[in-house]
Design a protein that fits this description.
The structure is a single chain. The chain is built from 9 helices and no strands. With 260 residues, it is mostly helical. Helix 6 packs across helix 7. The chain has 2 domains: 1-93, no CATH class; 122-260, no CATH class. The structure holds zinc ion. Zinc ion is lined by residues 37, 39-40, 42, 62, 64-65, 67.
């Protein structure tokens, strides 16, 4: 496979990510009807529905009502494309695993933006990823073991660890800050991350994700843009660190040296 093919597949997945981000929180079907302009409702023609380029040659406006189409649509497509090409590059020549990793990347981008907008992580994504992760465990090089049974066990253990560590963090956060720090959606997402990246991946993801979330929250508080009682979505930070896992699982001793 060529890198341009990987980019293109990623852009098409990104186009579907836009559908997920728009429709999943509204509990609409993600397969039918086809894409429509949110303002005038006219369905978008197949030749305008091309990832990234469609937005460019329409000049960022709907063909029929000229309503502005958010720049976020092509940017999400571009982001997914770059991530998918990167994953293909990282895992080539293992095509089956690269394809699985690309699907996960697209789902994580959707999680990040849905949680950012609505403070929810749909079960379709978190539990869907959990199920897919266990199904894909035999071909997953991030999991411990060579035999498929060992990898399945390591995926199950990772899911349990992700769930447990996140639940514990949420409980402690609630006692410490007297407010909900992490929700049930985050806990289910962490179970999925563990199923894909094992115990070590779940640990890395929670550490780095919480660190990024805390930096974001503190920087907002410093600029007085956020009160202590305001919620922060953790999904985007957990997704970002889970994506990092798919490129590189940080060994535990490295993480400890970093914190000391
Ligand atoms: Zn329109």
């Amino acid at each position: 496979m060529d890198i341009f093919v990987a980019l293109w597949i990623g852009a098409c997945l990104g186009s579907f990510v836009n559908v997920l981000v728009h429709r999943l929180p509204r509990e609409q079907s993600v397969v039918a009807p086809g894409s429509r302009c949110p303002r005038c409702g006219v369905s978008i023609r197949f030749y305008d529905n091309v990832p990234v380029f469609g937005w460019l040659w329409l000049g960022g406006r709907c063909r029929s009502c000229r309503a502005k189409i958010s720049l976020r649509y092509p940017l999400i497509e571009l982001l997914t494309a770059v991530l998918c090409a990167g994953l293909w590059w990282r895992w080539r020549p293992d095509l089956a695993w690269s394809a699985a990793a690309m699907v996960v990347a697209a789902a994580l981008v959707a999680v990040a933006f849905i949680d950012w907008d609505h403070f929810i992580i749909p079960d379709e994504l978190s539990l869907g990823l959990l199920g897919l992760g266990l199904l894909a465990s035999p071909i997953n090089p991030l999991l411990w073991g060579e035999h498929w049974l060992a990898r399945l066990g390591s995926g199950l253990l990772g899911a349990a660890a992700g769930f447990g560590m996140c639940w514990l963090t949420a409980e402690m956060g609630e006692r410490l800050f007297k407010k909900e720090a992490m929700g049930g959606g985050d806990i289910k997402l962490m179970a999925a991350v563990g199923a894909w990246t094992g115990v070590l991946g779940a640990f890395d993801c929670l550490m780095i994700g919480s660190f990024l979330g805390a930096v974001y929250g503190l920087s907002l508080m410093a600029r007085r843009r956020l009160k202590r009682s305001d919620p922060i979505p953790f999904g985007p930070f957990l997704s970002a660190s889970a994506l990092l896992n798919f490129f590189w699982l940080i060994p535990p001793d490295f993480l400890f040296r970093l914190t000391l």
